[in-house]
Amino acid sequence: RMPFYDEIARTPLFIWDPRCGKKGERRSSLTQTIDLGPTLLDFFDRQILPDTQGKPLRETIASDTPVREAGIYGVHGSHVNVTDGHHVYMRAAATEDGGPLYEYTHMPTHMRSFFGVDALKTAQLQPPFSFTKGCPTMKVKVSPGGWGKSQDFGNLLFDMDKDPKQEKPIQDDAAEKKMTEHLVRVMKETDAPAEQYERLGLKA
Description:
Blueprint lengths: L5 H4 L26 H8 L14 H6 L7 E4 L5 E4 L3 E5 L10 E4 L11 H4 L3 E3 L10 E5 L8 H4 L2 E4 L13 H17 L4 H7 L4
Antiparallel strand pairs: 1-2, 2-3, 3-7, 4-6, 5-6
């Protein structure tokens, strides 16, 4: 299957905040869907918990104040993507089989079925992540490649200012280094599991 290009991943956001009354304007700051919850909590004057990764967009709406340098996204088991709003870097699995890869869950179900017995035989209890409120999770080994083999495409780098349709991947060592640094930093901030660095050929 194809990589997670912007035509799928990039979600239009139309928002009006009566506190500033701005309308009919565009903003260039990078936002993500994880910002919607904190934005609503802020609007209704409710507490935003310390482990919340999203940011309230009040000042972004009012004056295009940035809330992040870069954001990561993608599909489990395929490319891990990072963007700074100008470049998109799609990091493929470094290994031939696309692993190691695990699911971490409190509820061992897929979209339409429960985990099978063979999968559950691999289950281990994983110590809490920073965002699981002190609760351990079930760590279950899965076969990579369910969403296509990212290693078949390799790492992909796009200049979104010059090529917004992502038709021409570029070779730019300096830009790739910068985007890789963004990727590692945000993975650390989101408490990505250790094997993801191994899977992507990155140093934590």
